[in-house]
Amino acid sequence: LLYTLFSIFHTFFFLKMFTISMENNSQNSDVALNVHFLHLPDSEIAVYEGDILLRRGQRSAINCESCLWPKSLDGLVKVPVNISSDFSLAERSWIADALQEVSTLTCVKFVNRTTEADYVYVERGQSCWSYFGKIGGRQAVGLVKNGCMDKGAIQHEMNHALGFIHEQARSDRDKFVKIMWEHITAEQGNFGKVNSKNLGLPYDYSSVMHYGAYDFSSTPGKPTIVPVPNPLVPIGQREGLSNLDVAKINKLYKCSKCSKIASSFSSVNYPSPYPNNSNCLWLIRIRRNKIFLQFEAFDLQTSSDCSSDYVKVYSGNSKSSPVLLDKYCGQGPLPSIVASGSTVLVEFASDETVTATGFRASYNRGMNTP
Ligand SMILES: *[C@@H]1O[C@H](CO)[C@@H](O)[C@H](O)[C@H]1NC(C)=O
Ligand SMILES: *[C@@H]1O[C@H](CO)[C@@H](O)[C@H](O)[C@H]1NC(C)=O
Ligand SMILES: *[C@@H]1O[C@H](CO)[C@@H](O)[C@H](O)[C@H]1NC(C)=O
Ligand SMILES: *[C@@H]1O[C@H](CO)[C@@H](O)[C@H](O)[C@H]1NC(C)=O
Predict the structure, then answer these.
(1) In angstroms, what is the span from residue 158 Cα to ligand 1's centroid?
(2) What are the annotated disulfide bridges (predicted)?
């Protein structure tokens, strides 16, 4: 009993030091409420950086091998998920859609939970929050109906569950941002820095894991985080995983996956021949309007049915989405491709023989079209 009391006291004390915000002054609504103080799953859990719950002794961010989800023999890291039926069907499919992007672009596969013991339960929360990494058993991720249902906000919380901390908590963050402590009163604990494993990948202002400039500000209109040297660099986007977010998941989980969030793009080594046995995916994501995809150059090995080397385009964010352009090969030009949705997936594959110079492509949002 004495130990329990001590534990509770200890946890409480720790939590006090990391008081968290009840204001939703942030664009990304990455806000945790005091509710955690009352509903701690056990005293080994502590609130940290606003929306992450940590197990005691695991405060070194992504520097924690045992926090990772296991990889199965097929090279996939399966993370079973059950989305609470408290969400509407539309919300559940929106959440599933945000998770599908991760499944498409990395070797992490979110799968519907059947009987797995370790899994993520996505629940309607009074705050947006997650545990850090895999904790074992059922672990909740909280999403607020109008608070963190943006695609990037959902991915943000799931990224915590995969083992990622906030970008501005990286060990090297002081080279990239200045924390404006004078504008942060109650929630200084959310702006801590940790001894993180940075995976040899650069600091990313456009990460979904980065706080926005005004998050947790105690003075309206005054920023809490200012990028250096250029204070105008945008931070805190929640439209979806950045290119580096994708690369970091693949690196942390040791996936050999060729996939990117696209702007303009080309086959590997273009205009030199692409490699044999290449397989790459580019996800194009826009907020609204149509996507006009144009191949400015195109030269792939010709084969019957394009079964050897090909480009294939999907309207959506997975290889099971509707096909816009079926396997295509040979020498271009290709007509431009118009997609009516907000995501398009481009797949390129080559087999083990004969390569060519490949392709270069770009897209625009088609602002001036009917
Ligand atoms: C907090 O968010 C809710 C819902 O998004 C909104 O109705 C409310 O006005 C916000 N409160 C503040 C203080 O911004
Ligand atoms: C998923 O969660 C719901 C409650 O929202 C529960 O009724 C159902 O049994 C769970 N399913 C699985 C497979 O865990
Ligand atoms: C997962 O379950 C949802 C319903 O909750 C269903 O719509 C979806 O097709 C399932 N996905 C897979 C891969 O079975
Ligand atoms: C692809 O493989 C063939 C032989 O299988 C080889 O001749 C060719 O140089 C390879 N191409 C590249 C780009 O590696």
Answers:
(1) 23
(2) 64-67
Substitution candidate for ligand 4 out of 267, 272, 276, 278 with most atoms within 8 A of CB: 276
Q: Is residue 250 helix, strand or coil? A: helix
Cα(151) to centroid of ligand 2, in Å? 23
CB 177 within 8 A of CB 227: yes
The annotation status of 36 as a binding-site residue, yes or no, is no
What is d(CA 166, CA 157) in angstroms, rounded to the nearest whole number? Answer: 10
pLDDT band at 1 (very low <50, low <70, confident <90, very high): very low
Say whether pLDDT at 215 is over 50: yes
Going from the C-alpha of 118 to that of each of 112, 114, 140, the distances in angstroms are 12, 11, 11
Contact between 167 and 198 (Cβ < 8 Å)? no
Q: Is the pLDDT of residue 47 over 70?
A: no
- DSSP E strands in 300-339: the ranges are 310-315, 323-328, 337-339
Closest CA to 141 of 152, 125, 130: 130
* pLDDT tens digits, 277-315: 999 999 999 877 788 999 989 999 999 999 999 999 999
pLDDT band at 35 (very low <50, low <70, confident <90, very high): very low
Q: Give dist(CA 46, CA 14) in Å, integer.
A: 7
Do you find a cis peptide bond into 333, omega within 30 degrees of 0?
yes
